[in-house]
């Protein structure tokens, strides 16, 4: 029976509660909804859905599933039971394995099956036999449980090894090894398999191995493939030197099989024998307990609050710097070293920290990319600047949790596949630029959420004394992540340290320990986090201390609007909350250029100074203002000229034209900061008919800018682990009606083009490829006619299937969407 149809039958027999649990664990199964159980089984067997489901399994569940995969054959229907798996999993009990199999069955990753042909019925209670879904083999890969392929597979798939294996076995036989000679590569593979089949026989083989051989083999404990220089070099047992190395010794005996010039593989039987005859050598139902340090709760709180206050201060200063001079991007994307250094100097921090801070502001919508100027600018109206400090913090945290960017990757090497450094791709020195595409990581939200959950778990498990908090490092978090979600371990390892550093920047971690507000965010309780922050975070100050040496000292963290005004008329110096602002002729002139006058500056300083305005500072402001140039220089991207002064006056007062920034410089001339084509387009929208004089326009471009994310607060919603209840109820109603009508009692013909038909066709093709079986295809030709053909499928990839036509003795490639249906032929190729 088809595996998909077997699963469909099992799903139909489930209760509504069981289906609800399935949809909660695998929400993609009903998004969008399915019409019947057959379509549900087809989707549950799909490669992408199975891959997502495996990412949620913990280590013991994966170990049981991989062992079941190795013990069964979905092509022949050879199933396995819990007692069979227990013999191959060291340290497991029958009860634990049965519990795991039941859990995997509830997730529709395995289903019940008939006992293997010829199996002896047990004397006790009836055993339950299982088969995994058909796509599991493709999802798990070629090294399930970290074990290599069998000798027979390697002979079939590695031509170089197939040519050498008969001679290799002959040499072993002549050297006195207890191995049978062979005449064909397949016989030789079976001889090697039998020779290394048990731990005892392998120990005898390794008894005469070089001293370093056990240490070398130990490196294959978790993975079957390894890198070896000159892996295909010739090695023979008949002419072996006394000081032979472990690699040559293993290659000469076929205990390592060369894959290419630089890689070798440890065959399956050798790997199992090294593990003592087990597929899983270490099995545990509980995660390992990490060794954690501790810090005081007071130190944790102070460190977290200090980090939050400092981050808010730096973000405010960064916004001012960007508003004064936007961050220009490189042609290849991102912000270059020169611009980043300017930003770092302005903030008085390291360049890497400046890059991370710029990334944080960008993903929060506090700065945005103006596509016309290729520069990062601050939106004109930014709500963040007017919010209380705890709300500003929550804005940043929400955006960070939901963002698909990894700020801490800034400055790291640009890597290609498998983490290998990639060629120069526009990043300076081959490193990732701030605000560039290389810092994009689609899985970042899932990784951040899971890391915060693990931090909360480890904190709750740690038996800390009163007033103490456990210190959590990357190694402890990674160890727990590897146990809870081993399929995602590589993603965690590449982002873990950066995520922890970013969490510390945002105060979710303090002094290496999860803070109280971090625990609230991990539990998805932002209101509680804001309450804690509002209670403990010192209020922003609204005053400075003016001194006679032309400086203003901030005795703490200043309110954002006060900092912004001070930065227009003074230059910041130093680091930390007690920032010094120095007044000079150039800084006062900067404020005058921004539209302020001497009296306005003195009134502002008098209002926000805890001391009287020193006389030197008053003289500096008044004298600079008196000598300030009367000529003013501005910028205009376009102008509007008309002889009708009344029409121009009406346009100047029209609310719809406010976005053009119109200024009247003469009775018949207005200037605008918008480009000519944009200005003309808006005027046409107001019912006017302007004519664009292209000879006067330096460059006619339609101004396009990215959306202003600062206009809407970013709200974090955790990656959805369960579909809405209404969707589940609607889906259950559809399936319940099919069950009532008896629609799943027999094997109906799948509708062409349906999800069920597609998955059934792929299942038939993949099985035929593995068994080298003929299939009968109903294919639509170029004229739209359906033609039945008997072919041998060779490979399926990228929506195409490569087939061999035995009648014409030719190969060709067909698009899967042209195949109406596929049926397996009766005979097998010999």
Name its key features:
830 residues; 5-stranded antiparallel β-sheet; 4-stranded antiparallel β-sheet; 25 strands; 13% strand
Structure description:
The protein is an alpha+beta fold. The strands form 8 sheets. Strands 24-23-22-21-25 form a 5-stranded antiparallel sheet, with helices on one face. A 4-stranded antiparallel sheet has the order 14-15-17-16. A 3-stranded antiparallel sheet has the order 1-3-2. A hairpin with a 2-residue loop joins strand 12 and strand 13. Helix 5 crosses helix 7, helix 20 packs across helix 23 and helix 23 runs antiparallel to helix 24. The longest helix is centred in the middle third of the chain and has 28 residues. The radius of gyration is 35 Å and the shape is elongated. It starts with a helix and ends with a strand. About 4% of the residues have low confidence.
Topology:
Elements: H1 3-12, H2 16-25, H3 37-44, H4 47-54, H5 59-71, E1 80-81, H6 82-86, H7 94-106, E2 110-113, E3 129-132, H8 136-140, H9 151-157, H10 159-174, H11 185-195, H12 199-206, H13 213-218, E4 225-227, H14 246-252, E5 257-258, E6 263-265, H15 268-274, E7 293-296, H16 297-324, E8 327-328, H17 337-347, H18 351-363, E9 368-370, E10 375-377, H19 389-402, H20 444-461, E11 468-471, H21 474-484, H22 489-505, E12 509-510, E13 513-514, H23 516-522, H24 526-536, E14 545-547, E15 551-553, H25 560-569, E16 571-573, E17 580-582, H26 585-593, H27 598-608, H28 615-626, E18 638-641, H29 645-652, E19 663-666, E20 669-672, H30 676-685, H31 725-741, H32 755-771, E21 773-780, E22 786-797, E23 800-805, E24 810-815, E25 819-828
Antiparallel strand pairs: 1-3, 2-3, 4-6, 5-6, 7-11, 8-10, 9-10, 12-13, 14-15, 15-17, 16-17, 18-20, 19-20, 21-22, 21-25, 22-23, 23-24
